[in-house]
Structures are given as C-alpha cells and as structure tokens.
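Forwarding these from the shared drive since the link keeps breaking.
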Amino acid sequence: MSEKSVSSTAFTVLQGLLYVGLYSSHKYLVSEETRINAQKILSMSQEGAKRLSQCNSALYHKVADVQEWA
C-alpha cells in the first residue's frame, strides 16, 4: 500500500466506530472525541464521504442491526 492510498479496512473500522458511537446500544463505549474524529477523517475523501452517508442511511442501520446479532 502506498503512502497516499487508504485501506478499505481503515474506512470500515471508522464507519463501524461511528455507527456504534451514534446509533448502537453500546454507544457509551465510543467517546465523543472519537466520533468527531471519525467523522472528520471520513469526510476528507470521496470514499470516506460515501461511507459517512451510508452510516446515516436507514438501510445501513437495518443491515448493521442484523450483522450485530449474527
């Protein structure tokens, strides 16, 4: 991986942290600072912005809820 490329895994981790911090029943595990930083990092790139909008969609919430119980 080059210095300027971003790992898909990194986006997935940030998206997961943000989802848990905002919408999960376990949101107390993610600090406000972590949520804010995850949003900032995701908003800084095209792929990150896409992940950020996914995280805010109702469909993503349903999928994440199912995955959480799987």
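-- next protein --
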Amino acid sequence: LLPRTERLALRRQATGSASSPLALNRRDTQHPRTSPSHNAAEKSSLDQVNEPLRVRGGGPAARVGLHREDTMLVLKEYFTNAHLLPITNRNEPLQDPAKKRGMLGSVKWGGLLAALVSYAWILLAWPGGELKLKGVAVPAARRCLAIVSLVSVLWATEAVPLHITSLMVPLLTVVSGALLPPGGDAAYSASSAAKEICGEFFNPTILLFLAGFSIGAVLEKQKLSKMLAGAVLRPFGNRPDVLLLGMMLLGAFMSMWISNIPSSVLCTSLAQPILAQLPPGDPFAKALLLGIAFSNNIGGMTTPIASPQNVIAFGWCDQVGAGLTFGSWLAFCLPFCLTLVLFVWGLLRWRYPPQLRTIRFDLGREQGQMTGAQMVTLGVTAGTVLAWSFWKPLGLEETFGSMGIVGLVPVIIFFGLGLLDRNDFHNSLNWSVLILIGGGMALGLVMQRSFLLEIVSLVIQSSLSGASLWTFMLAFAVFMALVANFVSSTVAAIIVLPVVAEVG
C-alpha cells in the first residue's frame, strides 16, 4: 500500500480538493463526476478503460478509497512517475520488486563453490591416483566419480536449477572422456560418446514419463479426473484420513501391475479434485501427495513384473537355483507391502493431520452424458494401461521393443485429435522434470560404463569378507539405497546383483 500521506493526497484528489499536491491542472476543483465543466469526451474515453490498476508494492487502487473514474484521472498525472501501473489481466499478479533478481541473483554460490571444489579435488588431488578394477587402473572411473560428486552436490544444494544440473551430465561426460564403449577395450571418440550419451538422455523411459504426463493432462482437461476420483474413492466415505488410505491402496494396487511412474501420475490426477477442496495451508495436501508417492513405490515391490529391478532380481534367483516363483514372491511381498502401506498411512495421518473433519466428496455425481472426447480419452487411457499391464503375455515387446514406445500412442492420439493442444504441450508435460530424469539416466550409463559402480561394489565385498550373511545383506542394502537416490535403481541392480549372486 502507499504511505499514509500519499493515500490522503489521493483521497483529496478524488474529492476534488485544489490543495492536493496531486491535483490535476484544471480550472475547477469539483469532483469529476459532478463538475459541469468536465470534458465529456475525456470522461467517455476514460470510462472505456476497463483495466484494473495496482499500486506498486500494494493491492488494487480501490483499497485506498478511489473509484475507477478517480483512479484514471490520477493516472494522467501520476503515470509518468510509475507509481500506478495498469495491468491487462484482472487475475494477473503484479510482480513483487523484491523478488526481481538480476543476472546470477538466483545462484547459490556456496553450493556451487562446494561442487566445483569437489570436482577439481577428485580430478587433480585424489589420493592413491587412479581407481583400479582387479588391479587395473581405470581413469574413466575417477572422471566419472568427479562428475557424480559435482552433480550430486548441485542437486542436493540446488545451487542451480535441478534440470540445468542434469544438462551438465552429457556435456562433462563427453568432454572428460568418462564414457567407455561396451567392454571398455578402447576409448570412445567424442562423436561416438556424444551420440550414445544423448541417446540415453532421451531413452524410452523418458517416453514413458511423457505418456504418463499426457494421460494426466488429458484426464484433467476433459474433466474426467473428478469422475474417476468419485467412482474409485467414493466407497471410502468423506473422512480425509480414510480417503488417504483409499488413495494409497489404489496406488499400491496399480503399481503392482504397471510401472510406478504412470501409476503415480494417474493417482495424482485423481487427487486433484480433492486437493482443490482443501483450504490454503492444509497439511493434508502434503499427506495426500506423499502418500501417493510412497504407496506407489511400495506397490512396486509386490510382484516380479512391477519394476525392472524386480525382473533382474527374479532372473538372478533363477540362475543361482533359488527356486523363487511368481507365487512365492507375491506370497512373501504382499503381506509385507500391505503392512508397510498401513504404517506409512498412520505416520502421515499423525504427522499431517487434516484441518477438515469431512470433505464434500460429490465428485462426478453431476456428470451428465459422456462426450465423444471423453469416451476417446477413457478408451485410449484404458488401452494403454492394459498394454503396460500385459506387456509380455500380449507379445508387445517383440513389436514395440519398449513400453516407452507404446506410450507414444496416447501422446500422438491426444495431440493429433485435438484433445490436447500446443499450450498443453508446452505447459502440462513438465519438461524440466523430463530433463532431470534424463540426466539421471545418462549418469547411470556413465557409472556403469566407467566401471565405477563395479569398483565400489567390489570394495564393499572385500571389506566384508568373513562377515555374516546378515551383515553382508545389510551393507549392500544400504549401498543400494544410497546409489538409487542418484541413479536409476535399475542400473544399480544390474551392477550390484551379479556381485551379490556371486558372493551368495
């Protein structure tokens, strides 16, 4: 708001006071709406202006007691000093000057400096020289370790935007020569390394994410998320804590059969109508979103086909003769995962209690006859989910090669038929998230090809020689949990599980 003295001056101007320091240069000092000498043409032109005004650093000009006509007259005198600014959109917020930052203003210099120091120290002053694999020096492993250190610190501190950090991975990989060809017999040329690292940066997993985001966007735009949320969650009543449990059970069940990536996106779309009913600052919003994330991760452990790392572990169990079947996996994991979902639900319920005792859950009850666009949306979405769920039984892998390629089908249909438009393509597909994930996938490839993960795994194995099986299992579980926070858990499983199988 304006200072008190200036507000008084504006009010005097609005009432036609000639003593006001902001008085207009006119012969009479009567109120412009009652003055007979007021220029009718001028008033007509002013009346045609519909844009609201905002006071810089404050709210609308009406808050200081001005009518629209008064405000427009003051604008004639005051606009040159930029104290009053017109805006063309009634809902457009005026940017706070305090939030305006110049170049480099958003960089967190402490985190950036720490990342650069760690990168330089590993490259130039690493104790012991090159990292070795079975007595053979592997220079690429040390270069990869430097890249991992740099991007990990930047990701942890958010010194620069997360997706910008991801873009550093292919750049540093090619320039430093950290990527080796399969087998690691000879160094890659820069052009070959660039082609492979960029291909991994936008691998089929990114297309799977893209499909999930597209499905979420079209469900929301076609107003199907409310209908689906009502049909699925209405049996759980209108108590927030019970709705949270229902959403978590739904997410865990869906991620048993499809990847937890599209299942999380679909659950988030279903949760949008519930989130819209919550008052601002309600902690239940955090509980609902965290519950979706945790339950989908938990459900991804339940069946051997729920996630790629499960498939890898299932295959190694077969190779070592462990005799693990689909039924035995499910029989062990299902009670454990269900217990874990209930535990997380209780924890979220205690940590983020809802402000509302009940939620008016009438979503979808007023839905009339479905339109053609809605039927196409539901049909394509259901077909995509079924294709992901019965990927191998339907023999789709031989035709499409990857579930990400199947994910292109709904993207093409939704945008090709106009169910989603260009604005949705730019704003609803979360490209910064896709770039962030691409950086993680590229980093996982470099860690694998540079033998860094294998070196670290062997170091853990040698340091635990003679230890009990439980100690060994705990150590590798902790190592896998740490690694999977920075790279794909699938990549970590590919490298670590063979070592575990050999030792076991």
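The chain is about 60% helix and 0% strand. Residues 16-98 have pLDDT under 50 and may be disordered.

- D.
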